[in-house]
Amino acid sequence: MGPAEHQQAQKLETKILEHCLVAPAAGSAAPVTLPLTYFDYVFLPFHPVQRVFFYELPCSRSLFLSGHLPRLKLSLSLALREFRPLAGSLVLPPHCASPEVRCSDGDAVAFTVAESGDELYFLSGNRARDAARLHPLVPLLLHGEGAKRSPVLALQATLFPGAGMALGVTVQHAVADGSTSAHFLKTWATTCRLGRNGVFGVSCVGGPPSYDRTVIRDPTGLGRTFLADLEMLREDRRMEAWDLAGHSDILRASFVVTYQQIQQLGLRVTGKSSLKCSPYALACGFVWACLVKARVVDDVGGYTTEHFGFVTGCRERMEPSAPATYFGNCLGICCVEANRSDLAGEDGAVAASTAICKTIRRLEERGGAFRGAENWVRDIFRLAAMGILTVAGSPKLGMYQVDFGWGRPRKVEVVSIERTGAMSIAEAKEEEGGGLEIGLVLPREEMSRFRGFFAEGLKQL
Fold first, then answer.
1. Residue 13 near residue 117, CB atoms below 8 Å
2. Are residues 196 and 261 in the same domain?
3. Residues identified as active-site
4. What is the CATH number of the domain that holds 353?
5. What own/partner pairs with CB < 8 Å and gap ≥ 24 does 61-64 have?
6. Each residue of 251-289: pLDDT tens digit?
7. For residues 46 and 333, what is the distance between their CA atoms, to the nearest angstrom?
8. Is residue 7 in some structural domain?
């Protein structure tokens, strides 16, 4: 490394200011032990979900440490009282027997405070940049000893002096799905925002979390099936095919499909298939087709099948339904198949959106979300090895509504898609034309090809 590169590396360095623990406030009504359900088991093999929220907050280090940070910690403690299992430990006994979250006296969430010399506005933009530059902004979850035991949640607040701050969130997917994570984050943020003059009252957005596990019925024994599959696949490494962490020249970029562009694509799909697709299906289909084109380049073999995976919320699909505030995972696994030559062809976006739309419609049939559920765990390993594109997040989560009192986030990134073969999706900001925001992490050349197909595809709408 030359002198100039060394100086640049020092400038971008993230300096740790404090490592601390934030305990839940006293008086929690949450259970001491919370068993996982079959919905949770599906996500045991996955890396933790990592998000970073960028906020514009032009203040000095001293003001941040003396003013904003104490409010963050106090409101976090109050929020954790309601979401007590997030401060507990995920315990995985040998042979995948009865995984659970355990809470005990002395539980607390690791909270790191740091200062970055990097450029907040560049990191929180849409342009392609080195994916590794976001790594210092998200904390790790460190495993304990003995029976596999690890914390559920870790947090990091990183100050960019004079510009803003980044809040890094790392959470075990097997404990909390996107809805539960959003419920907690909005509760924490609202509690922080509404606190005045040192007086804080917890504000559970949408109501307190529900820990009632009896609402998750398992008449067909999916829990036993999934635990047996996980034990059988314990040494299986096929999910590593998704993992780009540690690879060189990996870029992260965001792409926006505006409301107007989605409407134009919808008219095109309806004209060719008579289907009226949701904005989600249209945007995902458009991205899937562009990515297939970027990957196949000259090879568009007509007999090769491409796969696309997403999750569907099952709280309302349960019979009877689970409450919207149910704490844990309640997601069904969905897989879409399409011919590679169709996706790489001139009407690839139409073919992809149509295939996704048809799969979503089948979910509305009675029991449709659970059709083939017994294969969910095995399918994840099988399809990971085949390079399936999956989706992280949902515009329904409203992550851009997480406001601690500094305004809505400038940008929200799902850092962990680098390890899970996923595209992230969220609501786009109105100043960007509304619509949907897509995040991708790809090798440099593949990102360049994708960007070209994406731009050209939008021009043709």
1. yes
2. no
3. 173, 403
4. 3.30.559.10
5. 61/17, 61/115, 61/159, 61/161, 64/159, 64/161, 64/165
6. 999 999 999 999 999 999 999 999 999 999 999 999 999
7. 14
8. no
